[in-house]
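thought: fold this chain, then report.
action: predict
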Amino acid sequence: MIFSKRLFDIIFASIALLLALPFMLIIAILVLLVHGSPILFTQQRPGYQGIPFNIYKFRTMKNRITPSGSLLPDAQRLTPLGRFLRDLSLDELPELINILRGEMSLVGPRPLLMEYLPLYSPEQSRRHNMPPGLTGWAQVNGRNAADWQTRFRLDVWYVDNWSFWLDIKIIFMTVWKVLSREGINQEGQATVEYFKGND
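observation:
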């Protein structure tokens, strides 16, 4: 990992975590009251070079199940509190811990699901040549509303064109995107459609 990028991550994430702690405490209490325990959603995701790590987020869904014991669709489990947290990306705040641990960067391709790894083309796999980010070039150019091919193309472009100033630009663009609530969901989806591979 590029030293200047890692140093910036440590400084920014440390300050952001200290400033966010009071809000994170309030969110944790609300999540506990509305969704129950556990407060955090933990899931294995591919990191730099595809190496797995556990990502941390605030839970946005209830564990509602069908009579057969399988989870209901996201749209039926996502609560109003969860939707609010997602709209403002507040559910992502615990990922600051992942950044301090060196598992993520402030800016980079978003960490997706482990089961996507064998579905990528060699070109798409290059998105893992940079650490995954809390935000990224694809997030400020469509967020979840963009189709998978567009998102992967933007991720690879970021890997090939990274610079410190590009990261700064993406951070400022992210703030605007979050406040304007653009591109939160794909059309017809409560969250985002699963990637099923290339045609």
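thought: worth noting. The chain has a mean pLDDT of 90.
final: tokens above.
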